Amino acid sequence: MSNYVNVVKVKVKPSLRNKYLRLVKARPKFKGQTSALFVETARSQFHMIGIWKSKNDMIKARPKMIEFLNTLRHTLKKLSPRLGVTDPASGSVVVKK
Question: What is the spatial distance between Cα 35 and Cα 49, in angstroms, rounded to a whole number?
Fold first, then answer.
């Protein structure tokens, strides 16, 4: 059972929305990731959701995730001075139905 999830909120520059979507569609799952979802929660606002086999798998993939983020960075809007272009969170699944 997948038991670890990471979620990253981003806002995409409206003029680069299609480019952002092309880039995320082209990216295969990371090693140790069981699935990846990209949810548009408002116009040009997305939550990237990664489902992982374990927390350790996510940690091992972090350098590749940052490398991928760097290919997207020019398409993203700054969320705040403190956050930059991403608002990440991660944790263990506590209920699965």
Answer: 8
Q: At what angle do helices 55-72 and 17-26 cross, to 10 degrees?
A: 140
Please count the CA atoms within 13 angstroms of the CA of 53 that sit on its side-chain side: 10
pLDDT in tens, the chain (97 residues): 568 999 999 999 999 999 999 999 999 999 999 999 999 999 999 999 999 999 999 999 999 999 999 999 999 999 999 999 999 999 999 998 8
Residues 89, 92, 95, 97, CA torsion sign:
positive
**CA 47-83-72 angle, 5° bins:** 55
**Residue 78, token pair as written in the block:** 């700054």
In angstroms, the first-to-last Cα distance of the chain is 12
Query: DSSP character for 53?
Result: S
32 with 52: CB under 8 angstroms? yes
